[in-house]
Amino acid sequence: MGSYLIRRLLIGIPVLIGVTLINFLIINLAPGSPADLYLTPTSTSADVARVEAELGLDQPIFVQYFHWLTRLFHGDLGVSFQNRAPVTELIGERLGPTLLLMGTSLVIAYLVAIPIGILAARKKNSATDYSVVGASFLGISVPHFFLGLVLIYVFALELGWLPTGNMITLGRGGGFADRVNHLILPVAVLATATAANMTRYVRSSMIDAFGQDYIRTAKAKGLGRSVITSKHALRNALIPVVTVIGVDLSALIGGAIVTEQIFQWPGIGLLTIQSIGARDYAVLMGINLIAAIAVFGANLLTDIAYAVVDPRVTYA
Amino acid sequence: MSSRKYDWIGTLGTIWATAISHLPWRIRLSTTPELLQVRNLKTEFSTDQGAVTAVDEVSFSLAPGETLCLVGESGSGKSVTALSIMGLLADNGRVAGGSIRFEDQDLATLPERRLRAIRGNSIAMIFQEPMTSLNPVLTIGDQLSETMILHLGLTKAQARERVIELLTKVGIPRAAEVVDDYPHRLSGGMRQRAMIAMALSCGPKLIVADEPTTALDVTIQAQILKLIRDLSAETGTAMILITHDLGVVAEMADRVAVMYAGQVVEQADVFTLFDEPKHPYTTALMRSIPHLAGPAGERLTAISGSVPSLAQMPTGCRFHDRCPQAMDRCRDDRPELLQLNGSPDHTVRCWLYDVPVAKVLP
Fold first, then answer.
1. The pTM is what?
2. Residues above pLDDT 70, as percent of chain B
């Protein structure tokens, strides 16, 4: 297991470098330049060229990438084109809120999805099962931005129960209850899609497990339904479900960008949108790197989780 | 004169003996305590084409310690009969009629909770597929001790001790290590040994073994059969052994019930069945197996046609369209299980033996 992990981590390095290269090329393919931000109605093309030279944008793309990469190995992600703040600092202060939002969503989504999936599987082809399948389909189909706006309209504007956005009420310090209040709606949006997806996986995985020979053996032993479900079926059903967690995490990063924008949640997602608008390549590269590391880490964790839940899987 | 005077005693004895030998089977059975008595079992499955009867009018009984072989082709209802007894039918299956008396309870109508107390405890089952019948994510020890913790109230530590004993008893080497192994570390034969240990763990009165050796290779088959036979003899456990292999029947059975298309067509003790098979289906089965002593290049006789589908059972005798001795009435009239004259334990479902002295079983 130890040598496997080291091997996986070593393979990860070229993969991550490849990802940053592709990102760098795609970002530079987009029209416009960070220098546009500095333009005023009186700017001349000479002014633009001066700013570009200042930002190092006049050099060939590969030279620019090489510079970026060299700095990266020194732990430096560069400075924002927009406000000259170090990228590590910008991302650092946004990482906490995003992790809070994503973590809470993931935990709540699984806490809801796993029991509901099991319930639907146990009552396969009943009214309960059909309702669960229907609801989860709806949950997967509704786009984040639409669900977010509907929730804001109903709970913030019409009922006035919850804030429309942001992480804390400005000027009131933001205690625990205040933060929870602000978390509810964005978590609801993010958790809905994740839970809906997970419910379907758990359901089909459990139905599959219930049909296996070893479940018949367990019944032949005289075991009760709850032991059969929780001990014999669930442990097996979780093996394929574990795979989805890695995929979910990547999907959550994408979902967080839209959701943070709608709820003005001061996280990485909001920073991403702002940086795209400002053509702030330096910050975008940093965010992409963080996202790539997160996805890579999630997949690694998935593989480790496999070995934990399935005794047949060993890594050497 | 004096001898004449007491003649009536002899006459009475003769009448008594005749009466006994002609009594219907059911009454005769009640004199010996039966462990399991299946009567007119009917099992249905609901399908898209409506209810389909997989097992119909199946009756047999089993004395303590006795081994009954259920033999027949695939689809003849052997496994469904076993699963009906265990109450382990798939969700769309149900016992639609008849009774399954085990000791003094009717398993067919017993509520699930009470059934659970019997399953794994006084009736245990060994399945056909050792490769898939054990849970891949639980250790052998965990799976075996579960039953004993549940039914015998053992503690985890006690159960573990017992598991190691049982594994040793069924011939698993290094039992103390295997107890902590997961099933995928064991071969098919070893897994089936573990399943046998599991079945024996609570000292059952009845073991239902559904083709326990079919999935194993031939050399292992003989070992497993010997193990099952020795252990059931040692513990006095009765057994229902399901098989399609007449060699296994000859080896294992005290009595045999031949099944065809969801019905028992002939039932007899193992010697009678092999010496004097009565039903044309049984005779055909016997002819379809090779004999070691037979001439080289001997052609085996196959039974023409195939087992009828459950949804389209032939009218009359279910075997009539494949039967070389079919008569007109076989096409229209359903034969009942008849008791053969002179051998009270030999019953057959065939019009060939419908002679006036034979008795129709209830």
1. 0.79
2. 87
